[in-house]
Design brief:
The structure is a homodimer of 552-residue chains. Chain A is of the alpha/beta class and 552 residues long. Helix content of chain A is 44%, strand content 15%. Chain A contains 23 helices and 20 strands. In chain A, the strands form 5 sheets. A 7-stranded mixed sheet of chain A has the order 12-13-14-15-16-17-18, sandwiched between helices. In chain A, strands 1-2-4-7-9 form a 5-stranded mixed sheet, with helices on both faces. A 4-stranded mixed sheet of chain A has the order 5-8-10-11. In chain A, strand 1 and strand 2 form a beta hairpin. In chain A, helix 4 runs antiparallel to helix 21 and helix 12 runs parallel beside helix 14. The longest helix of chain A is centred in the first third of the chain and has 25 residues. The two termini of chain A are 31 Å apart.
Amino acid sequence: MGESAASIVVRFETHPDRYKHWKLSFPEEHGGTVARLTMDVKEDLGLVAGYPLKLNSYDLGVDIELADVLQRLRFEHPEVKALEIGSDKDRIFCSGANIYMLGGSTHAFKVNFCKFTNETRLYLEEMSAESGIGSVCALAGTASGGGYELAIACDEIVLTDDGGSAVSLPECPLLGVLPGTGGLTRLVDKRKIRRDLSDAFCTLAEGVRGKRAVEWGLVDEAPPKPKFKDAVAKRLGAMAARSKRKSFTPMKLGPLEVKRTESGAEYKYVSVSLDEKARTAKLTVRAPSGKEPESAEELAKVGADAWIVRAFRELDDALLDLRFNHLGIGTVALETSGDPEKVLAVDAMLAKYKEDGLVREVTLLVKRVLKRLDVTAKSFFAIIQPGSCFAGTLLELALAADRIYMKDEDGVFVRVSAMNAGPFPMPNGLTRLQSRFLREPERVTRVLESAGNIDTGAANKLGLVTFAPDDIDWDDEVRIAFEERASLSPDAMTGMEASLRFGGPETMETKIFGRLSAWQNWIFQRPNAVGERGALTLYGRPERPEFDWRRT
Amino acid sequence: MGESAASIVVRFETHPDRYKHWKLSFPEEHGGTVARLTMDVKEDLGLVAGYPLKLNSYDLGVDIELADVLQRLRFEHPEVKALEIGSDKDRIFCSGANIYMLGGSTHAFKVNFCKFTNETRLYLEEMSAESGIGSVCALAGTASGGGYELAIACDEIVLTDDGGSAVSLPECPLLGVLPGTGGLTRLVDKRKIRRDLSDAFCTLAEGVRGKRAVEWGLVDEAPPKPKFKDAVAKRLGAMAARSKRKSFTPMKLGPLEVKRTESGAEYKYVSVSLDEKARTAKLTVRAPSGKEPESAEELAKVGADAWIVRAFRELDDALLDLRFNHLGIGTVALETSGDPEKVLAVDAMLAKYKEDGLVREVTLLVKRVLKRLDVTAKSFFAIIQPGSCFAGTLLELALAADRIYMKDEDGVFVRVSAMNAGPFPMPNGLTRLQSRFLREPERVTRVLESAGNIDTGAANKLGLVTFAPDDIDWDDEVRIAFEERASLSPDAMTGMEASLRFGGPETMETKIFGRLSAWQNWIFQRPNAVGERGALTLYGRPERPEFDWRRT
């Protein structure tokens, strides 16, 4: 497909009615408490032409559906307390990302594709940890590469012991690249498999089966074929019984109804305006304009049209659009507008009803979108000026930015709320305020205790501002900052931001994005993988790859 | 210099008498408790020709001297309790790694160079944390790039406020690469500088001076020129007074006296045998042959000829030789031979006299060498067979390996000692046994409590063995393992090992090697840095770099 995957425009909105590759059902035996999601990839329905999606291999289109169904399970199916992930294909669960798709993709597309699939797998785990929907991966057939990486993103794995079905990570031996969708990290950090066994496993193209897979810790159980279904059902039943998920009125996630033009996109609460020539964009989030739900009950009634849901779903879509469809944009101004009181009222509702099941899901959605911002490889500068609305939840946008420019002028201010104190942790597990003040942690409390409008002088003193030019300097200083940033090496900026954004503790998530992805990006660029005679390029052809053997 | 840096043979042994670029003195005012190390790089004495080392810029040769002097300070100068690092050049401390050297180096050399310089800076910090020799960086002039990275590896930084002297990390704006010698990581993780200020700092080519440098946390103090020397001396005096360093008889580090041939190297206790065609090597460490010191006093008398010192200094040299001079070697067999009782006797001495100052330094040396092994980008397979001597300290070699092959035969065994229980932590802060048993931590105690010889069956049961073929399978299985490993993509192996070796917690050290270095390696490979029109390639020339602006 060559550059085609890079030149197509990718859209991330979908709906179960339009799924091509996944089937969602609710098996009767569990009385609706268990959802069953089965993969049945249509070979000829890839996102772009040129690579048949054989053996349940996936491309971005398949993963967009997976991300969508996981989101909907949380909002639209409150009765679900456990998830089975399986396959409708015989003897195969999933053979991972399609190699011909990868081999033919640009570097930028490969990297973006891996980031999105990593996010989706982390969402699967977050769904278990935070929403009480655990997952069992039912391997009635072989799971290889990204297929096994999807399996280890589930809580439990049952592999049929039929003499043939195996789990494997053949990326290193067959393709000369890494199991980079969290595979290496989850082996040693999540399943805590011994490093030497992990080493052997990752170089064994044919993988590991049955009893040995259990012994090594690669799967949790490997029953013989006749007992397989029962074993899976038993685990799902126990998982659903353990779940602490609260019931709530389902919230249907409607379409986003975005208007896209050459120069950007207009959502209801989010605007994107592009300057492709300057390689900059402006991303504006608007505060609610009308009346917003004041209780969990009202939220359930209003549904997905509530500002907090709609605005952050829009922001999520806008970020993905920037990542995939506007590669040349390097620097993004983060702006807000509207009435801060309306945002703070929403925050107060979220804080007051945080025990409510639906409010919890909405809060978690915001958390995930903010994390998507944290790991987006663009430079973000928050612009705080008259008319801005960086209050509470929207203040998180500024705190997620690489820099904060705040105009030193009367009437310019920010506000804090309870939502800055914990509900939206970054991938490193800290709040954005904690991450900001690693050197002086007492400042976190000082900021959180700042009641009322925090003007530029006070914000500067609190440590919330990078630069605070006055009216005379503002236009020039901000303009020059964007021009300078946009002139720097995009690679250096990506590496720099990946390092500076996540000080302090590390989590499996930061390890996946910061360490594993960096190594994978390196390898994805090396001639040994993607050169004319590289392993990824030559996959499926009779020729053997030729390596530059120098170890680095 | 093109490929020349890659084709020269690098030797790591040196001696103060032969230093070209550093001067070590012991200022009278501190009565010998403070060492002063000043940089005065000789422009025309670079490791290879072709890049004048202007403005105290450094190449590998300069850093080899730095590593040597830090080692000698610990062993040969027990009276030293604080270290000043400064410059003998006017208005310049150090301008970092020489750009023309970097621009002309191969990818492999750049990566290896950065790893070595990273290790040296970590040793400087370890010297402060573990040996009570703190460091003050005296910036009487500008520190840029690697110069500032050396400064932030010190405990304290004093910058003269003379209107001109600045600290800066201009790698991103000027070269399109990262401050990859720990720079980005130390900014946010060691000095805990706010991420937005770090962002601004790292894109400001001219850097930050005086008061602002103090405010941002980039330096600890910025006195005016007339007060500079006093400020530095005061900090050094306080540091030396705080030091808990114990006195001991100096140990002179003599020459290693290695015999090198086409097919390897023979040290007294270490042998390296190379098979360049098969891309494999065998690294053998021999147990002591004669009588070894049984007390701290005897150790002081025997000096650096003691097995524990000599063997590990030899191993260190052999590892660096493999890294720099044998790039094509991908897989290394780790073997041992000799009398395990003799190793265990040394271990018992180290454990018994661990409070002794010299014993402590020796133990820390072993720790550092083992860490050097942990981060060496070669596949290591430990081979345990009749005649092997994987006991105590030497068992750590096996535990550092990616796999352990142990022959299932009578008379094959391993032994544990107190040295497996803590003194040799990995870069992640865990012992190698703890790292191995993240899944079943109770196994650590079980192994440590195993008295006497642990035969193959028992070792296997304890989880110490990856594969344990018997006499019938041994030769074939081991041969095939090496052949298979040596056939795999060297890049995939490097990325895989960097991920699998360090499960569990992260430290500044693992962040530097696992995250920052991975991003730097990626960037070092990108056309935006090293292509014909890349920023690193064009540095110093009138043309401006041309970037592929796609953000990834």
